[in-house]
Write a structure and sequence with these properties.
Blueprint lengths: L1 H15 L14 H9 L7 E3 L5 H6 L4 H8 L32 H14 L7 E6 L6 H12 L4 E7 L2 E2 L2 E2 H4 L6 H4 L5 E6 L3 H18 L3 E6 L18 H8 L3 H11 L5 H24 L15
Parallel strand pairs: 1-2, 2-3, 3-7, 6-7
Antiparallel strand pairs: 4-5
Helix pairs in contact: 1-12, 2-9, 4-12, 5-6
The structure holds thiamine diphosphate and magnesium ion.
The site of magnesium ion has 6 residues, from strand 4.
């Protein structure tokens, strides 16, 4: 969780320095969702389908941070050869089928992946991450319907961070509990505290076991909060209050785990701070290496482009 938090801090810095162009969506605040669910996956057989808030997930599936930064900097050695950028990280080797700039774009892909995996041996599963805003797309309903009808082992993780860009959940969703919107498709659903790493880790292990045994889809609503604006340019205080932000920071996922580790005398606060500084030093070295990486050859411009 610390690595993700600090990665995003450095990424934002380099965005402001002009080294990163286009969009940058930070995962800061939502770390316990990704860590809980991706840590329990087995990427020798399982697959991940993501949306554009994907840097943290790329770190968790084991992609080289230098290659992730290089992608953000548009370099040839980036995970998508420097042609995808922040929203379109991709790694078939690590069973990571993107990063997608289209809201709801991954939902039907994850249904198809689940259908393919159901025919493979070893009980593989697919996990699909998307935001609360994706529930307002038509493909959400099409995907839930087919996933349930075909009984595919796909976990749909709806990351409810209360906002779809600058639009609050109660201004874009007819029901306040998002699990209620998935229940009509006859799949199991549950809410999980996305600030609590123990809650997400427990849910992931239990749900994956159920899916592997029963070959059924599942819908999770992870309740969390994004600390930054929708993207770096966005000013969240125009549409949300400082009080609300403070409430969520008081239940910061890293803060909660730190308090637990200190209370249980597993590590001291000083040791955790030293660990954070070590993480920052390592990430700075990755930033430097990525800065040295060459830009793509101009001949790459039309290669791998589907038109
Ligand atoms: C089909 C489609 N409609 C609209 C957009 C513009 N758009 C980009 S992100 C976004 C908000 C999505 O919010 P949410 O799904 O809650 O994800 P979050 O950013 O909170 O992680 C919108 C409307 C888009 N990219 N694709
Ligand atoms: Mg959202």
């Amino acid at each position: 969780m610390l690595t993700i938090r600090e990665f995003e801090r450095l990424g934002e810095r380099e965005f402001r320095n002009g080294l990163i162009r286009g969009y940058y969506h930070s995962y800061a605040g939502q770390e316990a969702v990704g860590v809980g669910f991706l840590n329990a996956l087995d990427l020798t057989r399982d697959y991940v389908v993501d949306h554009y808030r994907d840097h943290g997930h790329c770190l968790l599936i084991g992609l080289d941070p230098t290659a992730i930064f290089a992608e953000l900097f548009g370099r040839a050695s980036g995970v998508s050869k420097g042609k995808g950028g922040s929203m379109h990280m991709y790694s078939p080797e690590r069973h990571f089928l993107g990063g997608d700039g289209i809201v709801g774009g991954g939902l039907s892909v994850a249904c198809g992946v689940g259908l393919a995996l159901k025919r493979r041996s070893g009980d593989p599963i697919c996990v699909c991450f998307f935001g609360d805003g994706a529930l307002d797309t038509g493909t959400f309903h099409e995907s839930m319907n087919m996933a349930s009808l075909w009984s595919v082992p796909t976990l749909y993780v709806c990351v409810n961070n209360l906002y779809s860009m600058g639009t609050r959940i109660d201004e874009h969703s007819s029901l306040s509990q998002l699990i209620d919107r998935a229940q009509g498709y006859g799949m199991k659903t549950e809410q999980v505290d996305g600030q609590d790493i123990f809650a997400t880790a427990e849910a992931a292990e239990r749900i994956f076991k159920y899916m592997r045994q029963n070959k059924r889809p599942y819908f999770v609503e992870a309740l969390t909060y994004r600390y930054q604006g929708h993207g770096i340019h966005d000013k969240p205080l125009n549409y949300r209050t400082a009080e609300e932000e403070a409430q969520w920071h008081a239940r910061d996922p890293i803060g909660l785990l730190t308090a637990h580790i200190v209370a249980e005398q597993i590590m001291s606060a000083e040791q955790i701070e030293a660990m954070r500084q070590e993480v920052v030093a390592e990430l700075e070295a990755h930033v430097e290496r990525a800065k040295q990486a060459p830009l793509p050859d101009p001949a790459e411009l039309h290669r791998d482009v589907l038109a």
